[in-house]
Amino acid sequence: MRHVFQCPLRWSDMDAFGHVNNVVFLRYLEEARIDFMFRLAREAASPGAFTGGSVVARHEIDYLRPLVHRHRPVAIEIWVAKLGGASATVAYEVRDEETLFARASTVIVPYDLEKARPRRLTEEERTFLTRYCDDEAGSASAA
């Protein structure tokens, strides 16, 4: 299953070449990831999910088509591509009905803010993330 986040575009997202700047894509992915992990997970799993924090260990983005400013949002589909004991890789597609603009992935590591070190996924976090495991690149379902 995939979660779909509708991300609004801002005029300031554009660069001198007339399309959304590559760095802005990271902000879009962050907005989708925050919605997924901190809103959806807490609503679906429990209020304690991901409250200890998490950090980004790696980003990877393939830019496929230029994205230009428009008034309708762009859809960011997010799902879990890999689940480990102390990390998860989330994958994304930035798209609309006609066009796939980018594919990306982020390795996230749960983090204990008080101890200032990585931690293992809790059982409730793992249960939530498992529901969004999707290794079929072509299938999408809104959550």
TrEMBL record:
GO molecular-function terms, A-Z: fatty acyl-CoA hydrolase activity
Listed InterPro entries: 4-hydroxybenzoyl-CoA_TE (IPR050563), HotDog_dom_sf (IPR029069)
Protein name, entry field: Acyl-CoA thioesterase
UniProt lineage: Bacteria, Bacillati, Actinomycetota, Actinomycetes, Kitasatosporales
